[in-house]
Design a protein that fits this description.
Elements: H1 2-12, H2 20-48, H3 55-73, H4 75-83
Helix pairs in contact: 2-3
């Protein structure tokens, strides 16, 4: 993920300063989607290998569940912010 962050930060130098907020919002949305996919993959693997029943893996499973919930919780902000008409 650090490569994605580094590449995105390099392109920010070429932006108009008025576009920073919108570009950073889209970047946060992209990262939240990737974080959700990664957390769901960890939960899937732990569930399929039946390791989620052991105590250390239970903590990892719950941490991945909380991470996925936090990432999904940011989506309504982005969906609502970009679906509303702009007031001039």
């Amino acid at each position: 993920m650090s490569l994605i962050i580094s590449a995105k930060l390099l392109t920010i130098n070429n932006l108009n300063p008025a576009d920073y907020i919108g570009e950073l919002d889209l970047f946060l949305f992209d990262i939240s989607v990737l974080g959700t996919i990664a957390a769901l993959w960890v939960m899937f693997v732990l569930s399929m290998t039946k390791k989620a029943a052991m105590f250390p893996h239970q903590m990892t499973f719950l941490l991945a569940c909380c991470q996925a919930t936090a990432c999904i919780g940011t989506w309504p902000f982005f969906l609502c912010a970009y679906s509303l008409p702009k007031l001039s």
